[in-house]
Structure formats: C-alpha cells, structure tokens
Amino acid sequence: MNIVPFDNLILVRVLKGENKTSGGIVLPQKFIGRYARYELLAMGPTVSWKEQVEIGDVLLGKSTPEDEELDDDIKLMNAHDIYAKEAQEN
Predict the structure, then answer these.
(1) CB of 39 within 8 A of CB of 16?
(2) What is the sign, positive or negative, of the torsion defined by CA atoms of 88, 65, 41, 73?
(3) Which terminus has fewer CB within 10 Å in the chain: N or C?
(4) Which residue has the higher pLDDT, 69 or 16?
C-alpha cells in the first residue's frame, strides 16, 4: 500500500493489545478504551509537529469516528487527535 496523506492527515498502524509503553509505564484500562497507540507510517505536509517525530515512532492519541480504516490495522486520521510521542529508552 503506497499512500501519501494530504494536509494535516497521518497514516498509522494501530498497535493492538499493548498496555505498556516501551519505557515500562502501564496504561490504565480507562486509557486503553478511549485512546490508542499508533505506529506512524506517513504524514501530510502541514502536520504541525512533523519536525518532532520520525516515521516508525509510536504515538499516543484518541480514536474518533472520523478515522478512515484502510485495512484491519491501518488508519488515515487527523493529526490533531495525537497527543504525545512515546519516548525512546536511553
């Protein structure tokens, strides 16, 4: 699949069944139900935080009904629904 998002959209892979960050922080069940972890696959040219992330980074954000599911675990979504990047361990 070769997709290039426009504007403020991002292409992500949903990371399912993982309730612990790479740093060892356990995400509460309340978080898992409303929010998700995503692997960044591609991003549009006007994403405001594009200099702070790289393709392959794990992002934390919310799922919305406006997200376009392209495959079982691939979504096209608005970058405004992402809240944080998971920090790498040193």
Answers:
(1) no
(2) positive
(3) C
(4) 69
